[in-house]
Specification:
This protein has 268 residues and is an alpha/beta fold. It folds into two domains: 4-116, Rossmann fold, CATH 3.40.50; 122-268, Dihydrodipicolinate Reductase, domain 2 (2-Layer Sandwich). The protein is 29% helix and 18% strand. It contains nine helices and nine strands. The protein has helices spanning 4-12, 33-39, 49-55, 72-81, 96-109, 123-133, 170-174, 201-210, 212-217, and strands spanning 22-24, 44-46, 62-65, 85-89, 113-116, 140-147, 225-229, 243-247, 254-264. The chain has a four-stranded mixed beta sheet with strand order 6-9-8-7, covered by helices on one side. A three-stranded parallel beta sheet has the order 3-4-5, with helices on both faces. Strands 1-2 form a two-stranded parallel sheet. The longest helix is centred in the middle third of the chain and has 14 residues, at 96-109. The chain starts with a helix and ends with a strand.
């Protein structure tokens, strides 16, 4: 119910046929749970999504998941195993194999699923696709995409530890990730994207938005090769100051020497 979960819950609840019966957040204070419970008087609060799914199994149809990346897969899979339709925020999972497994289970159980990526609904996205598909821009020879955000960390691994806030269940926040001490304002709230065990870095988090339009507009498929430049990685956080070149097979919308380049971090 915190962060993106706050936005998604509010938007979903606007639909006249939706009734919110369960709210879940590992941090009751950060998630502003008491405020939500005043708004959704039929809802009950849980800190553990597994307990929520078990308690409401015969009462709910759909589960919305807006958690840190490393918990997308286990939470989504737990809901689908109970036959629930799911709306899960991007990036869909922390690892590619997890994405493939979710797709397999969704197909087997014939569930309706959607990944949250708001660019798909924006007018600029649809106009760009139209301009390219109709040949208004001609054949595309170069794509440059970037984000000035720096969700990487190439410093020394954190060795400090802080007292855990009373409102937070740190063990539940970690989920299936390796156990480590809580460090205030380092992992939670909102800093987990830069850490390898929890997030997908700038490329994984913002690239999914920014790649989406050219990728689908140009009918691109898997890259033939990838070449990356960055500051020296440390095995703890995602690399900083990335520049990544992708080689794609040409399509009817591109020139034969088409190139695709990504930058992130300060100065991108």
């Amino acid at each position: 119910t915190g962060g993106k979960g706050r936005v998604d819950t509010g938007e979903i609840a606007k639909h006249k046929h939706v009734q919110v019966l369960g709210l879940c957040d590992v941090d009751r204070e950060r998630g502003q749970v008491d405020t939500w419970l005043k708004r959704f008087t039929s809802a009950k609060f849980y800190q553990d999504y597994r307990e929520m799914l078990a308690a409401l199994d015969d009462k709910i149809d759909v589960v919305s998941i807006s958690t840190p990346d490393h918990t997308h897969y286990p939470a989504t899979m737990a809901a689908m195993e109970r036959g629930k339709h799911v709306y899960t925020q991007k990036p869909l999972t922390h690892k590619l194999a997890e994405t493939r497994h979710l797709a397999k289970v969704a197909a087997e159980k014939k569930l309706t699923t959607q990944m949250g990526i708001q660019n798909q609904s924006r007018e600029a996205y649809r106009l760009t696709r139209h301009y390219i598909k109709e040949g208004i821009l001609g054949k595309i020879s170069k794509i440059y995409v970037w984000s000035f955000k720096n969700w990487g960390y190439d410093g020394k691994p954190y060795t400090d530890k802080s007292s855990i806030p009373e409102s937070l269940d740190w063990n539940l926040w970690l989920g299936a990730a390796p156990v480590r001490p809580f460090v205030n304002k380092v992992y939670h709230p909102g800093q987990w994207r830069k850490i390898l065990d929890f997030g997908c870095g700038t490329l994984g988090d913002m690239g999914i938005h920014i790649f989406d339009t050219p990728f689908k507009s140009l009918d691109l498929s898997e890259p033939l090769w990838v070449e990356a430049e960055c500051r020296a990685p440390n095995g703890f956080g995602h690399a900083e100051q990335n520049k990544v070149h992708y080689g794609f097979a040409s399509t009817k919308y591109t020139t034969d020497d088409f190139t695709f380049t990504w930058w992130d971090g300060e100065g991108a």
